[in-house]
Amino acid sequence: MTLQASKKPVLEPIDRMSEIIFGLLMALSFTGTMSASVAGGDEVRSVLAAALGCNIAWGIVDAVMYVLATVIERRRHFNFMAAVRSLPAPQAQAAIRENLPEEVRNVFSEEEAGSLLARLRDQRVQPNKQLFVVHDLKAALLIFALVVLSTLPPSLPFLFIENLHVAMRCSNAVALLMLFVIGAQLGRFSGGRPLPMALAMASVGSVLVAVTIALGG
């Protein structure tokens, strides 16, 4: 395996697709809500600015929460490994078994737990105990970019169409199409059929559109 092939991606494919979906759903819900409330000659530009501002804010929040969740999970891992190395053997083995997936735990014997514990305690290499690494910053920046950039295609109708109602429906159509495409990729990535997941994502978006229309959007 080459070095390039073994490098850890900044974000896993499922995470990248999820962030795009979140951005699209935020854009769908927020533009619909704003279109129901704005008025005046600049109403189209108001919706566009509000949608972009909303997703920029959400991108920042999502990126910060990713970093916090990663740091907390890394701290839990460090504490678990320290406990496994310091607890008496029976308690350490029980801790190992409790942290295994249920399917693995059901077939993981006490002897295997003891063997794994011995190997962990025999390790001479000290693990890197940094709670925050450069990879976290790269992932946070990519999350922010994905959330914000996912807003741009549904925003284009607001740049070229003066009529708010027409711009709104065109924006909805673009967002629903993107949800369908991303859903198909998500279904393919999960090993299933693309169409059911594509229809599911488009249906979620359609429900949001229907709700905002009912509210006057």
Description:
- By secondary structure, the protein is mainly alpha-helical.
- It has one domain.
- It is 78% helix and 0% strand.
- It is built from ten helices and no strands.
- The longest helix has 44 residues, at 43-86.
- The radius of gyration is 24 Å and the shape is elongated.
Q: What fraction of the residues are assigned to beta strands by DSSP?
A: under 5%
- How many β strands by DSSP? 0
Rg, rounded, reads 24 Å
Average pLDDT, rounded to a whole number, is 81
What number of domains?
1
Biggest β-sheet description: none
Order of secondary-structure elements: HHHHHHHHHH
Number of helices: 10
Low-confidence stretches: 1-6
User: So what's the oligomer here?
Assistant: single chain
Q: Specify the helix fraction band.
A: over 70%
Overall geometry: elongated
Structural class based on helices, strands and sheet pairing:
mainly alpha
Instruction: Give the distance, in angstroms, between the N- and C-terminal Cα atoms.
Output: 53 Å
Summarize the entry for a quick read:
This protein is mainly α. It contains 10 helices and no strands.
Quickly list its features.
disordered N terminus; mainly alpha; 217 residues; 78% helix
Topology:
Layout: H1 3-6, H2 13-35, H3 43-86, H4 89-98, H5 102-105, H6 110-122, H7 134-149, H8 152-160, H9 164-189, H10 194-214
